[in-house]
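Hello,

I think I submitted the adenosine-5'-triphosphate job twice by accident. Can you confirm which output corresponds to this input? Input:
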Amino acid sequence: MQDTGLFVVTVASEKGGVGKTTIATNLAVYLKALCEDLPVSIISFDNHFSVDNMFAIGPHHGQSVAGLFNGVPLDHAMQMGEYGVQFMVSERHLEPPNDDVRHLSRVLARGELSGILIIDTRPILDYFTRSALLAADLVLTPVKDRPSLVNASALQQALVEAGNTADRLWLVPSLIDSRVRLKEGVGIHEFIVMQAKERDFQIVDTCVAKSPKVESLTTNFSSRIHPVLTHGRNTAVHPQLKHLAGFIRERYEAEYPSVSAPLARVVASVEDLPPGRASHFATDCPVCHRRITGQEGYFYQDLRHHGTGFLHRSCLDQVLIDAELQTLFPDRGALVMHLPETGLTTDEGQVTLHLYDDDGEEIAVEVLPVEPSTRIIALLQAVTGREPEEMFREMLMVALTPEAPLTFLAEAGAAVFAQQRRLVLEDMRAKERL
Ligand SMILES: Nc1ncnc2c1ncn2[C@@H]1O[C@H](COP(=O)(O)OP(=O)(O)OP(=O)(O)O)[C@@H](O)[C@H]1O
Ligand SMILES: [Mg+2]
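Support: Only one job matched these inputs. Its output is below.
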């Protein structure tokens, strides 16, 4: 599987029965149908078992979503389901592990899962919904009428309170009855769009119509829930869900252009970056904080948070001044700075350096004790924007090449980096360092 990074879509609203689960489950199926090679996963913090009823193949046992909160590796907990969508078994009684809503984001950032993950939530702002809001790259909030639209403001506020940014929220007009006309002949969809724009909400360029056929798919006599794609293709909802999946795919591609762009593109400068990637790109060297153009130095990526940038060669030399392994740098390869789980709480070495050659073979490992690590910790702090006590399993990968690091921003270069990153992660996982 290609290393594609992870894009999390959380479907949330405080209003019950607005179509969250219908949108979340069907979106997974449509996304998979739209991009066959893209891993698509879904989990639900609800206890209605709709995800299980749509995706489970045969009797559904296995690790439930509770595993996310008690250390089970994600790739073990996810199982392959119907329509090629991976899912986790739902849980009847889900108990918060503590009150730290960052837990889920940390688990998802471990890199065990890639592609698109859809999270269905309960209609309350509990620990799990807040965790899913914080972890989200994009939040979809179905709105069906004025009250649910008013409620979206509260959700937006919760998104910000959880530590995310308000601009990740997108409204989806849902359960729209196209026959209903309000005063002066205005349709419900039109009305919601107007109201949303007045309140400065972002709203997707489609809706999900109310359809008896779609309703019957979830309320039939068997426990199996069928997707609109297979059982409701002649409804108005079919093209709408396809459109919604296309919108999510576009957002995903903007975030991970190297994976998805079909044509090789040469980037002449940092200013050429597509907006999705530019937001994760640092234009200053994280060591000396001076501007760096990419004509010189090294390219790096923060593997947990996906921030990228360049750093000067002389700056990296300074950071590694006490490290023996600096003398072993290959012409072409990668350096990984890894902060293990116990990172800053133990005296037995804080940062581990791993040196890889071009084929993903590990050349050297060096564990640095507390004192010489401080410069590396400062570098990690600049790259991740986190305080040392918040750092947890940080991983910074620096591509070592004789060419200008700018080449890593072009499609071909990005693919080379992604391939090397995959080899490195595989090796680290095989050696149980992750
Ligand atoms: N497009 C649609 N057309 C008709 N009925 C729909 C549509 N979408 C959802 N429904 C029906 O509306 C009800 C609520 O939908 P759904 O369960 O998806 O909402 P929800 O927001 O997840 O609810 P909850 O807050 O209880 O989790 C269900 O009975 C479902 O079958
Ligand atoms: Mg639901």
